[in-house]
TrEMBL record:
This is histone deacetylase. The keyword Hydrolase applies. The keyword Hydrolase applies. Belongs to the histone deacetylase family. HD type 1 subfamily. Residues 445-461 have a biased composition (Basic residues). Residues 463-477, 511-524 have a biased composition (Polar residues).
Amino acid sequence: MSQRRVSYYYDPDVGAYTYGPQHPMRPQRMKITHELVSVYGMLDKMTVLRAKRATAEQMTRFHTDEYVDFLARIAPELTHDVPYHGSYPMALHEDNPPWEGLFEFCSLSAGGSIAASQRIASGATDIAINWAGGLHHAKKREASGFCYINDIVLGILEMLRVFPRVLYIDIDCHHGDGVEEAFYTTNRVMTCSFHKFGEYFPGTGTQDDKGRGEGRGYALNVPFKDGLGDDSLKSVFEPVIRRVIEVFQPCSIVLQCGADSVAGDKLGCFNVTMNGHSNCVQFVRSFGIPFMMVGGGGYTVKNVARTWTYETACALGVEKEIDPVLPWNEYFEWFGPRYRLEVLPNNMEDLNVRDSSLNKVREIAMQQLQEITPAPSVALQDVPKESLGHHLGFSSHEISGHDRLDEQLAQHSRFVYNLNDSSSTSSDESSEYDSDASEYSQSRSRSRHVNKSTRTKRASRKAYSSGSYAQQNSHSAMTRGKKRMSIMTNQWVDALAYEFGLGLGLHMPSNNTLPSAASPTPSTRDSREGEREREKTGKTKRRFFESSARWDEGAGRVLVEHERGMYEIERDLGWHTVVNGRRWIESSGSGRGDGDEGREGDESIGGDDELGEGEMDIDDEES
């Protein structure tokens, strides 16, 4: 094979991080891979680089500011301080726990993919490798499937500054849902995922998911069943990718080489060997298009290291020179008893061949490619290589004079702008799709009981402070949280819709139950309808780009669903005013007894029957 310029990104600190002693995700696998690459003498044949770690500002090119800030602050000892509705004891989901050095690892992973993309876009290399990347499940405001920051999306965004079209290929055993969702409505990025589908994480990736709007047809999914072997993968991968490149004509490619599709993986269910997996790399390389290789899944560490080492050799074009007998290295004992650079198949049956579903999947994929517009183009324009602020010498650290109110107003303005923008662009199809962000609230809840008598209202304050109020009212927040599938158990769990919608897999433990709602909310009904649809058809609709938050003219601010309900109660009894910086509810003369007019709407609810310090009735103030 012809010689290609290869850039290899590696940070020596990557092996020092750990998700936890019992967690299947092991960042150490990148260190072991690097050790094998080194002892095989491949480092001298490529440019070895250490990327600058991604900053929080770079991460917010895709992820929300609140989510990135949350990742920067979260730590294992702060688990109980995570803001959420309700007072029930919650636990972070086992898939995405908080661990020491979480944000540093995310910046390391994302920094490698951003730097690799920039190097490809500049023409300085033909192939760039970042085995620390490939975290394809992370969403815009949510962690998922061991992934916190989606380095792939950040890398593709860098490529799009120069290239009109980018092709994303995913050979991980799990569907690349995070990347597909990020580019679901554009025709500049085509996503092509080869994955296991069924009762398997993340539960998405059917061939009915083709994209939306301008991106219709540019999301290609190729689902398989258990036991996929080398020949089966090759018979679908090569004709589909060949046709994709003919039709889409990408200027660059991102290849996610998740090794959990290799035989013997702890969480995988395919029977692909190391040679079968690396054949995908060789085939993509044969087109001569610049491409970036990233890691991804893979939970049998020694097989991951073997596979990625051999695929590094494939990128260099020296795979035939590699000795299958492993040379001595620091982790030599890990590879016993054979001590060879190989991953052998097992005796798993290939269900794709038994029921002849392989041909049908390939035919549907080829038919989809016949229907899309070939080689979509974009307008030519000069793309600045750096931001205006960076060009003028300003940095985010030099900006001063912003107080907390400035930050809150800026955050609120961005939210309202994005809300109006999404509602205007997707109104014609909003009935068919539901936003992934709608599972979570967008602002702090200020709901309170407003009753007809002072005694009843004071009693509700006691209930709030004792936790029973939170128990009752957290039910609506809990029911709005849609089900999420665990990557380790492949079971559906209820995700908690907590305060900022940051979604690191918070869920209700099985031994905690909430009282049933007297009347289900619209989101609850939608969730139940979705469950019934899943039971009947075995599949669900992809729902994006619709928020549960709306601008309320009466309140004069953005309210989420449960806040609108509480505001309507308060509106019937009175209206909000502000006196000396405090919120009050002035009586409209209906539904209240004498002497109860003008009770302050406390932000902090006390547990005493008497008014707290600083509280007063408007009538008393006037007298």
